[in-house]
Amino acid sequence: MKTNILTLGLSILSLTAFAQKSEIRDAGDAVEDGNYSQAQQAISQAEPMLSEANDKWTERFYLYKGQAYLGSGENVSLEDLNTAAQAFQKAADMGVEEAQDGLVAVRNSLVQGAINDQNSQEFTKAAEKLHTSYQLSGKRDTIHLYYAANNAVQAGDYDMGLEYLNILKEEGYDGSGVEYIAVNTETGEEEMMASKEQMDLMIKTGNYSDPSERQIPSKKGDIASLIARIYISEEKYDEAIAAMEDAKRENPNDIELMQAEANMYYNMGNKEKYNEIMEEVIELAPDNASLYYNLGVNSADLGNQEKAMSYYEKAIELDPDMTEAKLNMVALILSKEREIIEEMNNLGMGQDDNKRYEELQEERNDVYKEAVPYLEAIIVKDASNVEAIRTAKNIYTQLGNEEKVEEMDTLLENLSQ
Fold first, then answer.
1. Treating both helix axes as pointing N-terminal to C-terminal, what angle do 386-399 and 402-416 enclose, rounded to 10 degrees?
2. Residues 391, 375: contact at Cβ < 8 Å?
3. In residue terms, where are the TPR repeats (predicted)?
């Protein structure tokens, strides 16, 4: 009786091993046919019996599992890619050379998925995929972590962004080296690839062309600047100042960094410090119209209208098409009207008062005439600028220029049709 029980047990064990091998074989056949969902189903059925398999079938199991969950590599979920990576890693640990190719394919899929997520502005997903790729590289490919941090910041997930950026900072990540570029054949736009391997793979798909390489500068300043900007957005100004000082040590004459520092002080309410730094920026980039415009805005906020007007004039001189500078100039000019109107309203009915009233009316008209050239320049460039047209109409009405009033009315009517 005991012998029969043992024989029966051995038979059941043999049947279990046979079934388990059959499921693994079916998974491999499904992978070969490109039927990945069927392969995953076979893997799920074989997994509970895996402890009964020998090393050869265990190696195949993990290889096929990785291939089943990686699939074609396109539009694969992060969860499935993690499953594939874990399976390939187990196969690789057992000495399966093909599993190494699988790990590379998983990382390529992660990076391409991150690029797709960036293009659709799903920055959190992109950050998670790039961080996973960084981890799968044994934390060697820190450039993936750098891009993960940037995507996290883009997504507004500052906790995630700071975590990644601080890792990069602590590791002394530099980021200088070679950048891999290819042209998207559909859009005609250049796109950056995370590695040469990924670029080569994308070229093989036919979806990209014109691969190229170019040198990229150190990213230490960018990292420190990003950290500072996150602290600024969270109004943690002490931390922001310390981070900005780190960034300046790396790139003391970086204009964008200096502007970020100036904006930091502006957000802190220290507009004098903002002006001081921006003046230094102008010395480094004297032909940058936007810098003069920004200084004009800040000077106006500080109540220094004369200085603001001089900055706007310089911005317009450098960029004659800068509508914002012209509109702000008009606003500053027309602000002179307030004091004139206030004095006019306080005058009495005497002869001297009437004479002063006429003088003030002339001064007011001079203010209008000073603003007109800026408005006309805007309208000539952009006949759809309703704000400029309506302001011009009001001025022409005050000046009694009916012909110009009718012209502005016609422009407004055309825009309303």
1. 160
2. yes
3. 221-254, 289-322
List strand residue ranges (DSSP E) for 157-301, in order.
Answer: 177-184, 190-193, 208-216
pTM (predicted TM-score): 0.59
Positive or negative torsion for Cα 208, 213, 217, 218: positive
Structure tokens at 1: 């009786």
Beta bridge partners of 373: none
For residues 256 and 282, what is the distance between their CA atoms, to the nearest angstrom?
12
pLDDT band with cut points at 50, 70 and 90 for residue 11: very low
- As to burial, measured by CB atoms within 10 angstroms (0-12 exposed, 13-18 middle, 19+ buried), residue 313 is middle
Instruction: Single out the residue of 83, 86, 85, 73 nearest to residue 116, CA to CA.
Output: 73
Please report, for the chain, how many H helices and E strands are present, in that order.
Answer: 20, 3
**Domain segments of the chain as ranges:** 15-173, 174-218, 336-417
CATH of domain 15-173: 1.25.40
Rounded to a whole number of angstroms, the CA Rg of the chain reads 34
Residue 68, helix vs strand vs coil: helix
Residues 324-377 pLDDT 10s: 999 999 999 999 999 998 988 988 888 888 899 899 999 999 999 999 999 999
**CA-to-CA distance for 298 and 382, rounded, in angstroms?**
26
